[in-house]
Each structure stands twice: as structure tokens, then as C-alpha cells.
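Structure ticket #2291
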Amino acid sequence: MARVIQKGKYTSQGWQGVLDTSFAAREEAVRATVAAWGGTIEAMYFNSTNSDWDWMIIVDGVDPNIQSKAQILASGSYESIVVEHVVTAAEADGADDSVQHKTA
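Resolution: structure written out below.
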């Protein structure tokens, strides 16, 4: 399965959810959701600067498809989400079968 980086912005409803609980509770809920999809979270970060994202997760073992993005956005807690499929140098070089290696 893929490794993905997801970044997103909270709506006011999303921020209220954080304020009603905690950042740790939000991370726990995200970890549970990703686990239900068969993946694991390497790390989750919250952004304290004025940026184009409020949170970011690095996830292993999930399929970066439109259905999962739609499920996340349908919750109403997120204004936007960016999903980026990333690979390691070994994967990019074709050291395993996870990426189709292309030569120039």
C-alpha cells in the first residue's frame, strides 16, 4: 500500500471540536479512523502559523483514493484536504516492486 501525506484546514466546526476536547483527543480519533482503513500513522502535526494547513499526517498502508478524501470532507470539520502520495528513494529507484521505475 501507499504512503501518503495529508494536510488540511479545519472549518470553524472542526476547531470547535478541538477546543471541546484536545489536540491529543483529535489525534487519537484520527489514528482510530486510519486504523479502521487498515493503515497506521507515522506522525501527526498541528501547525501554529498562518499557513495553508492546520494539521498534517503521514500515513502508511492506505489507498490514496477519492473515496477516503470524500469521507473526510463529508464530516464537515474540514475546509480542504490535500493528499499526496510519496515514495522513498529506494522505491523511486525501483529497488522494490512498489513503484514502476522509468529510465530516461
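Closing remark: The mean pLDDT is 85.
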